[in-house]
Amino acid sequence: MADGIMSKAATMEIPINRNGNTGTLPEDDGLEQAAKLQWRLDEKDLQQVMVSGPNLNETSIVSGGYGGTAEGIIPTGSIKGPSMHHSSSSSSMTAEDAGRGVAVEKLETVKKWGLNTYKCTKQMISERFGRGSRTVDLELEAQIELLRDTKRKYENVLRLSRALTNHFYNMVQTQHALGDTFADLSQKSPELRDEFGYNAETQKLLCKNGETLLGAINFFVSSINTLVNKTMEDTLMTIKMYENARLEYDAYRSDLEELSLGPRDAAGVARIDAAQQHCQVQKDKYERLRSDVTIKLKFLEENKVKVMHKQLLLFHNAISAYFAGNQQQLEQTLKQFSIKLKPPGADKPSWLEEQ
C-alpha cells in the first residue's frame, strides 16, 4: 500500500508558474490536499497494522483503486449471519421502544398534572375574588369548623397540662431534697431531733403522694396528646383530602359549564363529552371523600366523649385526693384507672449505660 502511494505521489505533476515557483492554482490545490490527507490516513493505518496486527473484524474490502468512493468499501464486520444481525437490531429496537414508551408516559403524567393544577388554581382564585361558584355542604362545613375549634382548645389544655406537670415535678424534687436535708439535720442536731424528724417524715410523705399524682397527670397528658395529635389529626387529614377533591370537582364543573356555552360543532361536542367524563370522575371522588369525612367525624365525636369522660374523672379524683391528703383514695384512683407507677429510679440509666 505504501509503495503504491509513493509511486503515485512521485508521478504527480507539479505546476510551475512563470517565476519558477510552485503554483497554487485552485484546481490543483484540492488534488494536493486530498493526496496529503490520503497519505496520512494510509500511513496511520499501515503503522497500526504493523504494531497490533490485522483484525479481521475491522478489515475492509476495497473495490476500486486509489481514491475510490465510499460505496466501494465493504466492512467485513457487517458480513455476519442474518440471525445475529436481526437479533441485535431487534433488541436495540425493543430497548428504544421501551425507553420511548416510558418518556411518553412521564410526559403525559406531567401534562395531566399541569392541566389539573392550572384548573384548580383558576378555580381557587375565582372563589377568592367572588367570581366562581363552589359546592357547599352547610352541615358538614359546620362540623368541620367545630372540630378545628375543638382541636385548638384541646391543644391549649394539653399545653397547660404539660406546664403543670413540669412545675409539679420540680416541686416534688424540691420536697425530696428538703426531706433529705431535714433527716440529716435530725441526726446532727440532738436538741432539734424531733422537730427535724417530723418535718422530714412530712416531706417524704408529700413527695410520695406527689409522685403518685404525677403518674395520674402523666397518664392524663398522654391520653390528651393521643386524642389531639393522632385521632383528630387523622380526621383532619381526611378533611384536607376532601377539600382538595371539592376544589377539583368545582374546577372541572366550571370548565364544563364554560364549554357548554361554546359552539356545538364536532370538535366542541367532543370536548364537552371529555369534560363531562372528567367531571364525573371528580364528582365520584368528591362524594366518596365526603362520606368518609362524615363517618370519621361521627366516630371521632364518640371517641372524644368516651376518652374525655374517663380522663376528666381521673384528673379530678387524683387532684382532690392529693390536696385533701387522702393517700388511700389517691392510690385507689390509680388502681381504678389501671395506672401503674414506675419504681423509683426506673428512669435513671444503669451504671453500664452511663459508661
> Secondary-structure element sequence?
HHEEHHHHHH
Which residues sit in consecutive blocks of at least 5 with pLDDT less than 50?
Answer: 1-28, 49-82, 347-355
Dominant shape: elongated
SS-based structural class? Answer: mainly alpha
> What is the number of helical segments per DSSP (H or I, 4+ residues)?
8
> What is the arithmetic mean of pLDDT?
76
Give, in spatial order, the strands making up the sheet with the most strands. 1-2
**What's the end-to-end separation, in Å?**
84 Å
* Overall number of strands: 2
What radius of gyration results from the CA coordinates?
A: 45 Å
The profile of the biggest β sheet is: 2 strands, antiparallel
User: Percent range for helical residues?
Assistant: over 70%
Strand content: under 5%
How is the secondary structure organized here?
Elements: H1 2-11, H2 26-52, E1 60-62, E2 73-75, H3 82-128, H4 138-188, H5 193-260, H6 266-323, H7 327-336, H8 351-354
Antiparallel strand pairs: 1-2
Helix pairs in contact: 3-5, 4-5, 4-6, 5-6, 5-7, 6-7
Structural overview:
There is one protein chain. With 355 residues, the chain is mainly α. It has eight helices and two strands. It has helices at 2-11, 26-52, 82-128, 138-188, 193-260, 266-323, 327-336, 351-354; strands spanning 60-62, 73-75. Strands 1-2 form a two-stranded antiparallel ribbon. The protein is elongated. 12% of the residues are buried.
